[in-house]
Amino acid sequence: MKPKSERRARYFLAGLGAATGLAVWAPRAAFSIDGGFEGHARDLSVVFVGLPLILLGGALVPLISWVLAVRRVPPWAAAVAALVTLALGGWGLTEWWTPRQHPDPGYDIPGM
Q: How many whole angstroms separate alpha carbon 17 and alpha carbon 88?
């Protein structure tokens, strides 16, 4: 594979990984950004901490798997390995990372 084509493939995989990370992050973090009832459960750490980490991880995971695989297998197989790694990373993120999802007005009264 030509160096210019390899560079394009790396940029594409990094961009695809960041976009996938954003697509997985946004619906799960929406409640924490909105805050629910009167903004009581607002947690903006999902924006200031979670989002940069998700984007960085989403860009680096397929890129690192591409770099490791392209040395041992043909470029098309390395691209498949990077896409499989990205899919597994997205699945792992949805299983592991769960910000607050339900309204929590903070009342300790039972039955309310």
A: 11
Categorise residue 109: left if φ over 0, alpha if ψ from -120 to 50, beta otherwise: beta
Nearest C-alpha neighbor of 49 from the set 103, 99, 109:
99
* 3-53 per-position pLDDT tens digit: 788 888 888 989 999 999 899 888 888 877 877 667 677 878 888 988 898
Query: SS3 for 20?
Result: helix
**Which range is least confidently modeled, 4-8, 70-74, 101-105?**
101-105
Rounded CA-CA distance 57/67 in Å is 15
